[in-house]
Amino acid sequence: MTFIHYLFEPGFFGSGPVHRALIVGAIAALVAGPLGVFTVLRGQSFAGEALGDIGTTGGSGAYLVGVGPLWGFLVFNVAAVAVMELIGVQRRRGRDLATGVVLGSGLGLAALFLYLESTHQSTTGTTVSVLFGSLFSVAGATVPIAIAVAAVVLTLLLAVGRPLLLASANPELASARGISVRLTGYAYLLALSLAVALCAVTIGSILSTALLIGPAAAALRVSARPVWTMGIAVGLAIAAAWIGVLLAYDSYTWPPHHQGWPVSFFVVALVLVIYLGCGAVARLRRPRRAIAPPHAGASDPRAIVA
Amino acid sequence: MFSSFMVNAWIVGTIVAVVAGAVGFFVVTRGSSFAAHALPNGSFAGAAGAALIGIDTLIGLAVCSLLGALGIALLGRRGRHDVATALVLVLMLALGSLFLSLSSQYAPAVYSLLFGEILGIGSNELAPTAGLAAASVLGLAVLYRPLMLSSVLSEVAQARGIRDFAIELGFLVVVALTAAMTIPVVGTLLVFTLMIGAPAAARSVTDSPGRAMTLSVAIAIGTVWGAIALSYDTNYPIGFFVGTISSGCYLLGRLAAAHRRRPARAATSAPAAART
Does domain A2-305 sit in CATH 1.10.3470.10? Predict the structure, then answer.
């Protein structure tokens, strides 16, 4: 009993903010898992990262006009996807550049919004809470919206999942089979922008990549089957989010100030530990499949179609 | 605008623009925009950590961005390069947020670190900035030929016995040094716009590397000067102007390139049409 008390500080299960944090974290993890797998396979980590950062613009803009940050994240991410698409994010060459340029102008705008916010309303906490997240202060009204957004993303994925997988792993084969690589690319970017918005609510806009990329990359290291990989990614992401919430709750009794360490820090650190751990597991298992060529490990996209 | 407390801003801004423009040329040529975005972001942790233990911000920035460069290069050797970059980046950012919450720094400091603060540059920062600038320019000069070769023709470079990993690591270190000195001026989140916008615009106008690099430096200087002037006049954050002007330059460059290419394409497609 004392052990349980040591593990879960008193009041953990009775607290409303903790419940909301656990629910929102789980929803974000549920969406981030499958989307992250596609992102890693397609090599578009930078797009995911950029969307998260652009969410900063949306989040700060939302504070400025006085609506919930999730709305800002959603609107600006979808708009950013449209612009990136317009200036050619789908072509592999120059894709990073297009992403970078959109990201740069978005961040410039974020600087302006945050500045206006802090001068007009003389609250100074917005910068930190938009950028680095504040899972414990998620408003109750955000939860149903988050569930609705997650439902949209998962429906979209169910609809385009199979062609998208083929188009991501082997574009030539996909177009030979009559799949529109470009159209599936649009669908993917749209789903990505919504998923990143959910991650941004959970751990903050500039940290959202961690929840998107980390668990998925870790899962790809230990499994090569797509559906399994997505399942494992979801599980790992939920684990990171929940343990992060628990540790952050416990950390209110930790030094140096007894005021709690940020939730987002724990989640990101756990994600990295999971990624490195899965790498170690993959290395331990490698000798058993000696037939595979040295570089076609679990992290090779071709392993999925093979 | 040119009063004594602004002189430092102009000098530091110019140094920063020259180095960022030159290093940025290689960032764009090698397609390492992501690393150029990640390194400055990661060094945010350095600045926050320096504030926590009470040492000079610039030292924290330099140490942390060098660590970030090492991390990206080592993790990227096996596994996916972009995943490694993303994970190193978010870990450093998260560490930064932890340091900030542990120290008693408040939001305005965070804000100026993230989005830049040109007025806060004191004369005691001139020497370290110039030192870092000299180091990155020197690094770039040493690396110039092999780096150019491995950026443009990586197979030829390998055949000549140039080690890709060593070049990549050296290049990342140069980017890290540049980032460290640029951050106090433009802010962690917007450093890379200076390293991408100007060179990308320059490259879309000219194909010759020497000319593109010169043009890139010129555009970067123009961007920083414009941003300082506008920021001084309007009181809005300098990061906003740097980001907007850089994207504007890129857009203009793209338009100019499209305009240039149209007659050329018509000329090349005409004989092809005649042959069929």
Answer: yes
